[in-house]
Amino acid sequence: xxxxxxxxxxxxxxxxxxxxxxxxxxxxxxxxxxxxxxxxxxxxxxxxxxxxxxxxxxxxxxxxxxxxxxxxxxxxxxxxxxxxxxxxxxxxxxxxxxxxxxxxxxxxxxx
Length: 111
Known about the structure:
The chain has 1 helix and 6 strands; from the N terminus they run H-E-E-E-E-E-E. It has about 110 residues and is mainly beta.
């Protein structure tokens, strides 16, 4: 795996925020699920501040991030952010490696 992947894994394990750039936009987020989709490393994260091409709704929004498009990533201590609970299953990460949820329904490879 890559250094970015390892950083996202550490953020999940320690419930720390990530500051990064994604497609050139500054993002502040909390990753919740990490793994692969279509042969690429991906993360499902809750973006609570920063920028994006489509804008960011007040209160934040769930984002599916292709990790090869992430740069300048670093960990930061701060409150853990998450979106509202919902009944729809995530479709961002096909093969789940880590999930912040201890009762994950996705059978992550690591806990």
